[in-house]
Design goal:
TIM Barrel, homodimer, alpha/beta, 6-stranded parallel beta sheet, zinc (chains A, B)
Amino acid sequence: MGFSFEVDRTAEGGGRRGRLRLPHGVVETPVFMPVGTAASVKAVPQSLLEEVGAGGKGTQIILANTYHLYLRPGHELVRRMGGVHRFMSWERPMLTDSGGFQVFSLSKLRKISPEGVEFRSHLDGSKHFFSPEHSMDVQIALGADIAMVFDECVETPATWERTRESMGLTHAWAQRSKDHFELHKDRVPWFSERQEQTQSLFGIVQGGMYADLRKESAERLVEMDLPGYAIGGLAVGEPREVTREMIARTLEHLPKDKPRYVMGVGYPDEIEEYARMGVDMMDCVLPTRAGRHGLLFTSQGRLNIKKKEYAEDQGPIDATCGCIVCRRYTRAYLRHLFASGEPLSAVLNSVHNIAFYLDTMERVRGDLERGAS
Amino acid sequence: MGFSFEVDRTAEGGGRRGRLRLPHGVVETPVFMPVGTAASVKAVPQSLLEEVGAGGKGTQIILANTYHLYLRPGHELVRRMGGVHRFMSWERPMLTDSGGFQVFSLSKLRKISPEGVEFRSHLDGSKHFFSPEHSMDVQIALGADIAMVFDECVETPATWERTRESMGLTHAWAQRSKDHFELHKDRVPWFSERQEQTQSLFGIVQGGMYADLRKESAERLVEMDLPGYAIGGLAVGEPREVTREMIARTLEHLPKDKPRYVMGVGYPDEIEEYARMGVDMMDCVLPTRAGRHGLLFTSQGRLNIKKKEYAEDQGPIDATCGCIVCRRYTRAYLRHLFASGEPLSAVLNSVHNIAFYLDTMERVRGDLERGAS
């Protein structure tokens, strides 16, 4: 209960126009999800997230990081505050990752066993242990609409043997995630008040840069009959053609009636390309992280606002963009804010970049609606 | 042209309900002016400044710092961009200080002569020279509605003799500021497009913590017949009773039909007290600076959001506050943002504090309107 996915139309290239129905609302797909790491999309007030991009419809769904919220303020605190939606005052859909990626990329002194991962916090060095069961408990306490199975993210590059071994662990952990989730999913903070609806648990296909392993991983996960499938372990340094190839080769083995989510991608042209290939969901820190570093996305390509050439440029970031930043502020002013280290710089740059990503997906949805690929 | 001040009613305590008419709009007084140091009220988007506080009427007038804008991006650049209003997309009234205070508090290796001040930039150590004439040229290029004479800010504490000497320099510089301003005020960037209206130049009363010098300074400046008078050199470390006493003893000698502006104050109870004594304008970095440090102002006093006791507090910052932050976010969430170093923390804390300051003045204006002191 609390989950459905429908596809209205599939274009020739494989792109699908559909929608996800979740306890906190409907998400038109394909969708880009801004990342709200520690229950905040960095530097952007929730009211602006709701307004900006996609013709004023704003952000449909955001992601929050289980690892960050587990460490600070703690998932039990978030549960007592009514769950992450209420905690951060965001009543639209949300998704939490499993914590796996951050455990493998941010934390220190990891010790992996079949049971789970022992690691030290990147904040204070304190010792913690994450297992599939624990990741589920944390994600249920946070209470996003969609939770993710706990997976191992293999280092890159990795040999076929190493990748297959890691993938095996991921599959075992996916099954344990599912088993634990099914037993405890009624503990989500808003279970009673939302007519006993609860979260949905998505699987994650691994298999590194090996098409045969991707196929095997997809098939193994599909056997678990989860409501949606992510493709993980991509955009970790490999060439873009490889990312694209791995996505294409994995999509072939995923069911057409379930949402497919590529984690952690990408540049605007990438999210557009993958959406047209049949990916329904994507997330990335890029619009906000790039924004904080002065990198802006436009219909004419990337623009580095710190450049001297913009010092007296009275035009907007992107003349074809209708976002509140482009309607109000000049490149000259935005360059000044960045050069002066003004905190408003991160706010405005992030708002524009998010708007640009959401507008991109709105345009792709329009094309797919008309059957154009 | 482009300036008038009217007083509707004066309460028994001396507080005045009035309004300033400036080229960029009308300002209801007494008024608090948030500080937009480098053409940005730190961390707050202009659209929120326009909406927040005073029952949704928002910020009436902001201040920008001549010293900061002179160094970066440079006043000539701002002039070419159409002046500071257009540069930052703020079409409501603005005021620039003279640069004097920052030259004396921020810059390095100052060398003061009757001609002016040589100093080194706090940013890159480069050498600069500010004279009254140069401050006027810079302020005219920036083009705020109100400019301030260039004054010397004496160190504190200072002897009577040292203070009197410094005050003498300030008076000579005020006259030179006025002479230069009168000659060049038609060079303001928006002179033609605003029917040949221009800026107004306010004087600054100095005299340290000596009532006799404050009186002498006020009288000398009043002879110069400027459209408004500021009281400078206060809130620089002296006890609050002294600040209050100096304001009271200076107000006695300032004309009742001109606006009186106390620079750089203060806490909410101070701005309320001074407004009720007859001060018409005040500015301070406190709402934004305190906000960035997690200090929030409320109807129940100050609140330090970093405290553990707010970790699970589901109430708003201030239950009597109607600002967008208090309507949407809990103390628990705001504490989490601060503790996690999230950039949104500075945005939301600053927005609330500005709203609290503006609401305070709105309430005082209401009282004065009814003749209550």
